[in-house]
Every structure is written in C-alpha cells, then in structure tokens.
Design a protein that fits this description.
This protein is α+β, with helices and mostly antiparallel strands and about 160 residues long. Helix content is about 15%, strand content about 25%. The strands form 4 sheets. Strands 7-11-9-10-8 form a 5-stranded mixed beta sheet. Strands 3-6-12 form a 3-stranded antiparallel beta sheet, with no helix packed on it. The structure holds zinc ion. Zinc ion (ZN) binds next to helix 3. The site of zinc ion has 6 residues, from helix 3.
Length: about 160
C-alpha cells in the first residue's frame, strides 16, 4: 500500500462498490468521540480496566493512509462485532434506541463504513469492537444483511490518540 497525499475530500474519490457492497465515504466531524468507559447502561467498555476517550477525527490520517477504499476497507461479519447495545433487547434498539431515541438510527446511512478496533477485550468477547457506526450496524442487521465494510484498526493505530479520563 502506498500513501496518498492530499486532503480528506480528495481521498478515495473512487468509492462505489467495494467488496461487493455499495460504499460511501466516511465523514467525521471534529466533536465525534468514542468512550472506553464503564456505563451502567452499556456495561464495561474500558481498555484493560482503564477509562479513555478518543476523538475520532484524530484518526483521519490513519484511515486515509491507503491508496484506495478497497485497500483499507474490510468485509466483516456483523455478528463478529461488539457494539454498545449489541446485547440489549430489541425494545431498546433501532427506533427505540436507548442513546438517541431512534433519531440517529433513522438518519444513518448504512453504506458509510464504520470503524472497528480488533484484538481488544470487549463485553461480548467478539473479535471486533465498534468505535464508530453502531446505528449503521444495527440498520444493516435490520435489513437482514450479514456483512458490512469497515475500517479495521488495532491498538498500535490508536494508542497515541487515547486520552485518559
Ligand atoms: Zn442511538
């Protein structure tokens, strides 16, 4: 893989069908965060017992560090992903989402890839942990889809961006 110079808007202009799935570019805003924390509602999502927050916008250079979308996106089985709420009853998901009352689910574009972290513990003992895109994952599942396209990162990609709480 070679690194492509340029602004976010110039990168991956060839998005379209990737891994057999229609895929649109990810747009991140500078206030989007992910918490590695303990939460009464969602459970223990810490990293090795420690709490952090990550600003997802900081990950853009990592996500852009490839020539094409197909180089960086992985086709992942949705059942292999732990996301906050994955173990909750349907009565608190989707249109009834416990975090947003359903508006983020209804407004989401499931063709935009989510961001996953691999190789870390998570409440479900799953292979991947979702950093961004849980409403899109649930939307894909509600469409009876089995797979989605995701950015897959590991700890070495993100550790310098972790902010202790
Ligand atoms: Zn929600």
């Amino acid at each position: 893989m070679t690194k492509k110079e340029g602004l976010w808007d110039d990168v991956f202009e060839d998005f379209g069908v990737v891994n057999g799935m229609l895929t649109r570019p990810l747009g991140l805003l500078d206030y989007q965060t992910h918490y590695f924390n303990v939460d009464e509602y969602y459970g223990d999502w810490r990293l090795d017992g420690k709490e952090y927050v990550i600003n997802l916008y900081d990950l853009m250079p990592v996500l852009n560090d490839c020539e094409t979308a197909a180089d960086v996106l992985c086709k992942v089985n949705l059942n292999d992903i732990a996301w906050k709420g994955f173990d909750h009853d349907k009565s608190s998901l989707g249109d009834y989402c416990g975090c947003c009352g359903g508006y983020r689910f209804r407004d989401c574009d499931a063709t935009i890839p989510g961001i996953l972290l691999e190789g870390v513990q998570n409440p479900g003992g799953k292979y991947y942990r979702c950093l961004d895109g849980k409403h899109r994952i649930y939307a894909l599942m509600s469409y009876q889809m089995q797979y989605g396209n995701f950015y897959v990162l590991n700890m070495s990609d993100i550790e310098k961006y972790l902010i202790p709480l």
